[in-house]
Amino acid sequence: MVLSKYMESEEKKKGRWKKDMGGSSGAIYGIGILGALVYYLMHATTFWMGIIGIFKAIFWPGFVLYRVLELLKM
């Protein structure tokens, strides 16, 4: 415990101390996944469509980015 406090103070002096910047983007991403999961599961008509919906909910940002880059012809 004492050693770790000493190490932290040495890191601060050297300017290598990493500051926690929050993490709100992770929370927003998580809410997006939950919203997509609810959407896909509510619209699933079969068990397998529900399973596919789970994967779509996890990977939806990749689908969106692909479509945006496709529309921008990049």
Mind sketching the topology for me?
Layout: H1 2-14, H2 24-42, H3 47-71
Helix pairs in contact: 2-3
Describe the structure.
It is a single chain. With 74 residues, the protein is mainly alpha-helical. It has helices at 2-14, 24-42, 47-71. Helix 2 packs across helix 3.
Calculate the terminal CA-CA distance, rounded to whole Å: 52 Å
Major beta sheet summary: none
Share of helical residues: over 70%
Number of strands: 0
Write the H/E string, N to C. HHH
Average of pLDDT: 80
User: What is the CA-based Rg, rounded?
Assistant: 21 Å
In the predicted model, the low-confidence regions spanning at least 5 consecutive residues are none
Helix run count: 3
Shape: flat
Class derived from helix and strand content: mainly alpha
Query: How big a fraction of the residues is strand?
Result: under 5%
